[in-house]
């Protein structure tokens, strides 16, 4: 069986001559097994110099295991990892070029903030004056210059995480690894700090990998997102690509909210949901094939109660996939209203739609009312469904 794996000895070659077009970090055919359990399965990934990458997925998907393999904290069972052209596959963690920030901060409670940041610098051969200068520079970079003499317990969670970040970048590593660095913080601090981390990463230009299970965090911070599930990579892409064009039903369901309906392909460009036909892209599907139709609540467009009756001068063509719906519930979420609709054309299934505050006011949408909504053809996505 292929998952009965063992460490393959791989020579740790010297760095190749730098190629500006080459990936900075290259992972090839990487597997990780614990006995019969395969945690990572045939992972291959290329990361460019200066990119901010998020490993995103549910608990147990393998994202932290992959980060630990890159860090050398838990060697892979098979596969190679190149960093800047250097084969680091079997190097111990101490011989790799990275800084790491953990969820728990991992600061030394008996050392001052200055001493915590200086800890990794003191073994680099720098003079005391050079170390002090670098510590002062880093404290200013993370906005905590006035706190150098304090101890970790005297700082808030957000401040401690900034100190952990300063310590990680103190030796100017080629790679910065962030293991769920914001998950222990409250929501407001988390939002503030993610902007700070992203701004700092752009300023330093350091290649960064962050592990998170928070989709909003990944969408806000990453240049590219690696969505993982059950030890494999489901999709790699920009936040826009991942959200707007999910390649699998898992990605569509995991990233953001979705409505999902059993569907059947009627013919090219048309599917049946409930007892009605809807227009959508059906490339790769055969007539009669079972599918799952997906549309996000935010993509549903409200048209009021009489969209079909609008004068042709005002609306040259009737919107496609226009349905009558009754508003059953409305939930105010600050930036928008989340509504739950029922529609005969959908077979009385509940349709969740997110409407802006302005749209609700303009169209007088209210609980118990009847409106017409449009499911845009290009936003109705199809995925294979087993019989």
UniProtKB/TrEMBL annotation:
Alphabetically ordered keywords of this record: ATP-binding, Cell inner membrane, Cell membrane, Membrane, Nucleotide-binding, Translocase, Transport
This protein's record includes keyword Nucleotide-binding: yes
Keyword Cytoplasm belongs to the record: no
SUPFAM superfamilies found in the cross-reference section: MOP-like, P-loop containing nucleoside triphosphate hydrolases
GO molecular function: ATP binding
ABC transporter domain: residues covered: 25-255
UniProt superkingdom: Bacteria
A Pfam family matched in the record: ABC_tran
PANTHER family attached to this UniProt entry: PUTRESCINE TRANSPORT ATP-BINDING PROTEIN POTG (PTHR42781:SF5), SPERMIDINE/PUTRESCINE IMPORT ATP-BINDING PROTEIN POTA (PTHR42781)
Protein family (similarity comment): Belongs to the ABC transporter superfamily.
Protein name from the UniProt record: Fe(3+) ions import ATP-binding protein FbpC
Naturally occurring in which organism (per UniProt): Shinella yambaruensis
Gene (UniProt): fbpC_1
């Amino acid at each position: 069986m292929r998952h009965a794996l063992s460490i393959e000895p791989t020579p740790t070659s010297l760095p190749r001559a730098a190629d500006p077009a080459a990936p900075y970090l290259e992972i090839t055919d990487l597997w990780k097994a614990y006995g019969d359990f395969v945690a990572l399965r045939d992972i291959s990934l290329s990361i460019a110099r200066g990119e901010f990458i998020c490993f995103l997925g549910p608990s147990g998907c393998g994202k932290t295991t992959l980060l630990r393999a890159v860090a050398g904290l838990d060697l892979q069972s098979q596969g190679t990892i190149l960093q800047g052209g250097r084969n680091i596959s079997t190097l111990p963690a101490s011989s790799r070029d990275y800084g790491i920030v953990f969820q728990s901060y991992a600061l030394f409670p008996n050392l001052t903030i200055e001493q915590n940041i200086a800890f990794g610098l003191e073994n680099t051969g720098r003079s005391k004056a050079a170390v002090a200068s670098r510590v002062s520079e880093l404290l200013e970079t993370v906005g905590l210059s006035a706190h150098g003499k304090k101890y970790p317990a005297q700082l808030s969670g957000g401040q401690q995480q900034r100190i952990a970040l300063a310590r990680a970048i103190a030796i100017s590593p080629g790679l910065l690894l962030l293991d769920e660095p914001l998950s222990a913080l409250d929501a407001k601090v988390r939002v503030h700090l993610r902007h700070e981390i992203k701004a700092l990463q752009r300023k330093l230009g350091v290649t960064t990998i962050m592990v998170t299970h928070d989709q909003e965090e990944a969408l806000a911070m990453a240049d590219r997102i690696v969505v993982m599930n059950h030890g494999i990579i489901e999709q790699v892409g920009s936040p826009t690509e991942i959200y707007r064009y999910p390649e699998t039903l898992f990605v569509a369901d995991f990233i953001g909210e979705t409505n999902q309906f059993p569907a059947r392909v009627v013919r090219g460009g048309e599917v049946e949901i409930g007892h009605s036909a809807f227009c959508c892209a059906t490339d790769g599907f055969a007539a009669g094939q079972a599918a799952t139709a997906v549309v996000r609540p935010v993509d549903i467009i409200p048209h009021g109660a009489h969209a079909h009756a609008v004068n042709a001068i005002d609306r040259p063509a009737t919107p496609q996939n226009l349905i009558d719906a009754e508003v059953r519930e409305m939930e105010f979420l600050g930036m928008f209203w989340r509504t739950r609709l029922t529609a005969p054309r959908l077979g009385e299934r509940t349709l969740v739609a997110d409407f802006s505050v302005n749209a609700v006011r303009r169209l007088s949408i209210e609980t118990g009312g009847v409106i017409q909504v449009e499911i845009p053809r290009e936003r109705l996505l199809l995925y294979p469904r087993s019989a």
